[in-house]
Amino acid sequence: MPAVQEKDVIRAIRKVPEPESGKDLISLGRVKELSLGDGDVSFRILVDPERPLSETVIKTIKSEVEAVEGVEKVTIALQQKPGAAGGPLKKPSPAQPVPGVKRILAVASGKGGVGKSTVAVNLALALSAEGHRVGLLDADIYGPSVPTMMGLQGAQPQVTTDKKIRPIPKYGIDLMSLGFLVDEETPTIWRGPMVHSAVTQFLREVVWNDLDWLVVDLPPGTGDAHLTLTQGVPLDGAVIVTTPQEIAGIDARKGLKMFDKVGARVVGIVENMGTFVCPDCGSEHPIFGEGGGRAIAERHSVPFLGTIPLHPAVTPSGDEGEPIVHAQPDSPIAERFRDIARRVLRQLG
Questions:
Q1: Are strands 168-170 and 73-80 parallel, antiparallel or unpaired?
Q2: Residue 127 — φ and ψ, nearest 5°?
Q3: Helix (H, G, I), strand (E, B), or coil: what is residue 331?
């Protein structure tokens, strides 16, 4: 199949005029982040809530692009124009880059228990396997699990002469977690300002060394840690983790809206525990429902990054401190995590 040509995609988008002005969205500068790869085309359209584009216009644009030679899938995300009424919240101050870090990717979930940290850890290892220098920040202040999942219980980071904290290396990536600084059985009972201070310290006072990616494992929900990250640093994107269940989907949608409000890009949805893999025959069964993650992605016009099944080898590997991507790099589950990592890299260029 021939490769998709950017000029052909642009020509297809230009065929559909914006009803009010009669001009196409390319000329109006409202098409952003056009990305092509392996038959997939994705881009964002800036919309004004006071003059929204109709569903018919969006569908027509999608149909025109789908008709381009070589195109197999089209993903269109809608983003409110900066400064529009009801648009993204203004940041209180300019976001400052994190020293030693090129790009930051958040992993979030609307609720706990969906395997967010499992996805974050294995996604970080998968990005590393793709040849990138990666760090993993466990910003789940109330339930830091990275030390256990990476086999570093009881480890303590070194402190430099100028009071900076050195991350702890393991399996080729650099790690930092509150779990390295407090006893694992000591509950974290903190108010918002303390959470803000801890996340800021992890971002500003850790010696991150020439990282291509810093993956941040956020707490469940939409709270202080999320605001500190999205308002304090230039966040390149966020991955939302959910499960097929409807209740998880409701909370995932809240997470999507939160990132939209603060003007942060959602790279896509990962559905964890999508099926159960039978340990005897290897067949997959949708015991928690089916298609929930993909439905959320389609409803909100964000990419669906993939499904991770509930596999007997995944949980024990994390509990034993050797995540599946490192423990069984050639397994089908590890390959799914690497495929998700490749999709994230394509989305973010």
A1: unpaired
A2: -65, -40
A3: coil
Is residue 344 classed as helix, strand or coil in its secondary structure? helix
Q: Which tokens in the block code for residue 204?
A: 């500003």
Tokens, residue 289: 């429902």
User: What structural domains does the chain harbor?
Assistant: 6-80 (3.30.300.130), 101-347 (3.40.50.300)
19-33 tens-digit pLDDT: 777 888 888 888 888
Please give the helix or strand (H or E) that residue 258 lies within, else none.
helix 246-261
Give the whole-angstrom CA distance, residue 221 versus residue 227.
11
- Helix H, strand E, coil C: the string for 198-264 is HHHHHHHCECCCCEEEEEEECCCCCCHHHHHHHHHCCCCEEEEEECCCHHHHHHHHHHHHHHHHCCC
**Can you tell me whether residue 224 is helix, strand or coil?**
helix
One-letter identity of residue 338: R
CB 25 within 8 A of CB 61: yes
- pLDDT greater than 50 at residue 189: no
pTM over 0.70: no
Token pair in block for residue 89:
């919240």
Distance of alpha carbon 287 from alpha carbon 289, whole angstroms: 6
| Other CB atoms within 10 Å distance of the CB of residue 288 | 17
